[in-house]
Amino acid sequence: MAAAEENSSLFLIFILTMIALPLVPYTILRLCRAASEKAKTIHCRCSGCHRSGKYRKSIYKRISNFSTCSNLTILLLWIVMIFLVYYIKHVSREVQVFEPFSILGLEAGASESDIKKSYRRLSIQYHPDKNPDPEAHKYFVEYISKAYQALTDPISRENYEKYGHPDGRQGMQMGIALPKFLLNIDGASGGIMLLGIVGFCILLPLMIAVIYLSRSSKYTGNYVMHQTLSTYYYFMKPSLAPSKVMDVFIKAAEYMEMPVRRSDDEPLQKLFVAVRSELNLDLKNIKTEQAKFWKQHPSLVKMELLIQAHLTCESFALTPALLKDYRHMLELAPRLLEELVKIAVLPRNPHGFGWLRPAIGVIELSQNIVQTVPLSARKASGGNSEGIAPFLQLPHFTEATVKKIARKKIRAFQELCDMSVEDRAALLTQVAGLSEEQARDVELVLEMIPSIEVDIKCETEGEEGIQEGDVVTMYAWVSLQRRNGLTAALPHCPNFPFHKEENFWLLLADVASNDVWLSQKVSFMDEATAITAASKTIQETQEALGASAKEIGNAVKEAVDRVKRGSRLVMGKFQAPAEGTHNLTSFCLCDSWIGCDTKTSFKLKVLKRNRAGTRGHVPEEGPAAAAEDGIEEEEEEEEEEYDDYESEYSDDEEDEKNKGKGKVKVVNGSAHQGAESDIDSGSDE
């Protein structure tokens, strides 16, 4: 009986240990992560973002943020642990050591007469003839009688003195950490134990494996369905215009699975009337176009209307059921758009290049969704190639406001940003008709808008020039600055109901051929990760070049300082194309802000590979060398102009006016913002 009770106590200790082993370190990890997320709470402080309630730390909001499934599970497990500790400490009885003198209430070494007197006294109290209580009978037989026998019987006393027990040497007792009822091996208990072993050791791991495999077979690591990626891959085309990206985006499997209710027909009809001007319908055949629109799959119709309702700020008229679908649609949008960008830049052609035009269109759509700006606002108007979209992302700005400030010759968004604070405040209050509080909101948002600079360097590691077929390494430092001094921040997006982090896409592309040579996403939110990545990259590069330990340390220190000042190192590799001079453009595009994208242009010169397999080093002496140097100097002096890529909504006239902008200056093989120049891979500058 005592052994069974001891096994039951061991079972509780076993359960406590199994819960504590994963729970304690996981809780510490969660607390550390929560403490490190302080940088991600930096957000816009304008009145619009404040009213949105996304960042308001009310009691209900705190409770809602805490009441997640994982947090509640952790809390429940800690409650179970505390209860088990209390039960084991206060309820479970400890194993008592057999002490005959203590049981009889005597001091060690008492005389035989005292032993007999104490035994008679306890017999009157616990003997079954005197006390009918079963517990008293049990105590008398197992403790009092054995204690008296151990002190009066010579053999028992000798065993007690030698082995500590009147019955002599005791064998080692082994216990099993299982409940008491499972140790009674009869028919029922044996079946329960068998079911427990089968369920815990076989069925539970099997269920976990099945759930994991079924989910992993349906979703990617970014929680996007594999069917969505297949659909995007099929419908992605190299000539896909930005105005047609919407048609591909809404074909995601997640959107197609959303329910289409009959009760949604009438609200969607009203919504269609409100957003009809944004649907790119042919006004000459409006009836045919409308009929064609409604003949689409109901899910496609619903998703396009909901997105247009968001872009045109018509979501206030949605029914509760549609509003729930609307929020779910926006919650999925950022990661779907990210995957759509990856599909666009996925290597397709024989040279392993992606497509530039659809990639830019997807990022533009992301900007409009985050900032709640209609796609039609990107159309060039009033001599502004960017359209009025950058202005409409500012709080309290409307088309009428843009027309008012245009009278003062402020037609480009950059012109507004370049004004002094005093002049801009006077313009907004006296010309645009905004109040002082509204003008302060505009100023707060302008301080949040990032300014991006890109410094690019392309080289073949360990070699002097770039020959066709070489593996070229691109090093790009992307630097971010804001007027408020912040690096990591959340964008201004009062109408986007979820937290959205800024992401930038660095694309190295050939605009003429629509090819993307390299692409990488850049984030400024996690400085520690950026420092680790930059340090590792610089260290490996310097070690490959045979630098000394001191030189490596100085290079790593310089890279860490640049990261802390708001820069991120981007490195990528690509195979050098055929011999010739290639006009390349690097695009740094933000997926959250409109009008802060950066384009830098440069030329990459690729030499012909030598038949002998050497690097084709140019001799220092001789007429041939002089002739080659003369040819290269002439090529460097030539200045060519070529068009930058503009949005689908820009006019051709504005494209002509903006030729030559966004070039880069090359110093020692590096590309900097400035005038257009070459990357001469054949000679040292």
UniProtKB/TrEMBL annotation:
TM region positions: 12-32, 66-88, 192-213
Ranges of biased composition (kind: Acidic residues): 629-655
Keywords: Chaperone, Endoplasmic reticulum, Glycoprotein, Membrane, Protein transport, Transmembrane, Transmembrane helix, Transport
Limits of the J domain: 99-164
CDD domains assigned to the protein according to its UniProt record, in alphabetical order: DnaJ
UniProt-listed GO biological process terms: post-translational protein targeting to endoplasmic reticulum membrane; SRP-dependent cotranslational protein targeting to membrane
Region feature Disordered, mapped onto this chain: 614-685
Pfam families in the cross-refs: DnaJ (PF00226), Sec63 (PF02889)
Topology with respect to the bilayer: Multi-pass membrane protein
GO molecular function: protein transmembrane transporter activity; RNA binding
Any one annotated GO CC term: Sec62/Sec63 complex
Compartments where found: Endoplasmic reticulum membrane
PANTHER family according to UniProt: SEC63 DOMAIN-CONTAINING, TRANSLOCATION PROTEIN SEC63 HOMOLOG
Name the UniProt record assigns to this protein: J domain-containing protein
Species for this entry: Miscanthus lutarioriparius
